[in-house]
Amino acid sequence: MVGCLVMGLVVERKKGLEKLYAPLFVACGTGFCGSLTTFSSWIHDIFAEFANIDQPALGRFNGFMSGVAITIVTLGLSQASLTVGCHLSSFIPRIHVPPIRPPDRTHLAFAALGPLFWLGAIFLLAFGPHSWRHRATFAIVFGPPGTLLRYYFSRRLNPIYPSLPLGTLAANTLAVLIFAIISLLQRTPGVSSTGCGALQGVLDGFCGSLSTVSTFVVELRALGRRDSYRYFGVSWVLGQAVMVLILGSWVWSGDRGGACSA
């Protein structure tokens, strides 16, 4: 919910952030808030309750009600956090800072910092202490490509059909698809500790950054009532359909082995 709250602050201060430094709004909104919230794990948690993956003894009705509760509570808290963030922005004094217009060379130097930090994460993954590197650094390595792909989708696809943001829909659905496949691979016997860490890194890093709840709720708020209900319904149904097709085959095969551990 923190990502949605910060997103509310960022959305309300959009003009000021862009005036201060043009890429700052995209960095805070798409980069930080979009990566901090994840749509794919939310959809997975709902399906896990519907299918009683973790606690099959509770029964189908309890699982169904738990899935509905996760859907409603998460969406409601996300919307509430966004609203609180928007309201908090009115209590934060506006500090007039002159716009930052760095020279071209300085701007390029700032732009190069991101890839350099990413290469540093790869270096840490390759040469860091073996006791913890596979648990901590895979997500850092896989995260930035997911964020960039989501930004590309939104730039190219969202303008096509304004009443249904296709870019965010495509990013969230693709993330759910990858999440389901990786979750299935985690339950394959014989996965090594490093391999399991890599799979978990894809879930936490790539899928977590590719999918977003904060941008999703901002778009729901901006759309009209009918369009917002349709957008939510299409996103939710597509996500659950993907989970049923990928993970459902494993669940209903009778094999409920646990996931590997890094």
How would you characterize the overall build of this protein?
The chain is mostly helical. The protein has one domain (2-90, 113-251). 75% of the residues lie in helices and 0% in strands. Helix 1 (2-12) runs antiparallel to helix 3 and helix 6 (104-127) packs across helix 8. It is globular and about 65 Å long. The model has no long low-confidence stretch (mean pLDDT 85).
Short description:
The protein has 262 residues and is mainly alpha-helical.
Measured distance between first and last alpha carbons:
27 Å
Helical percentage = over 70%
Instruction: Provide the domain count.
Output: 1
DSSP E strands, number: 0
Average pLDDT across residues?
A: 85
Q: Compute the CA-based radius of gyration.
A: 20 Å
Largest sheet at a glance?
none
Q: Which strand-content bin applies to the residues?
A: under 5%
Order of helices and strands: HHHHHHHHHHHH
Put simply, the count of helices is 12
**What structural class should be given to the helix and strand makeup?**
mainly alpha
Shape: globular
Spans where pLDDT lies below 50 across 5 or more residues: none
Task: Please render the helix and strand layout as text.
Elements: H1 2-12, H2 14-20, H3 24-36, H4 39-50, H5 60-89, H6 104-127, H7 133-136, H8 138-157, H9 166-186, H10 193-210, H11 214-222, H12 225-251
Helix pairs in contact: 1-3, 1-5, 1-11, 3-8, 4-5, 4-9, 4-12, 5-11, 6-8, 8-9, 8-10, 9-10, 9-12, 11-12
List keywords for this structure.
single chain; 262 residues; mainly alpha; globular; fluoride transmembrane transporter activity
